[in-house]
Amino acid sequence: PPKLDVVRMPVPTENLPAGTQLTEDVLKNKFKLIDVVTPAPDNVVTKLDEHAGRYLVYDLPKSVFIPRSYLAADKPVGPQPA
If residue 7 lies in a helix (H) or strand (E), which one and from where to where? Predict the structure, then answer.
């Protein structure tokens, strides 16, 4: 069989709530790398270390790829009252 090219992508090992900061501890203990056949989706994070210190804007379910739009440099603020 032909050899497939794979890329390692991070996914959370548990559900992570919005507002979670990607600290060194969180990156080390709450994520794992899985192999995905290339090409990897364009809109997802492939190198999680580059996003250390950022915050999750939305809840991130267990074992789901991390869309880039889910990360922000500042801690997200909840909905504002009308």
Answer: strand 6-12
Distance of CA 78 to the CA centre of its chain: 20
Which of 8, 9, 12, 10 is closest to 59 using CA atoms? 12
- How far apart, in whole angstroms, are the C-alpha atoms of residue 70 and residue 73? 11
CA distance 17 to 66: 13
Q: Give the predicted TM-score (pTM) of the model.
A: 0.81
33-82: pLDDT as tens digits: 999 888 878 899 988 999 999 999 999 999 999 999 999 988 876 665 55
**CA distances (Å), 41 to each of 38, 67, 74, 77, in order?**
8, 9, 25, 28
Of 33, 30, 41, 32, the closest CA to residue 67 belongs to 41
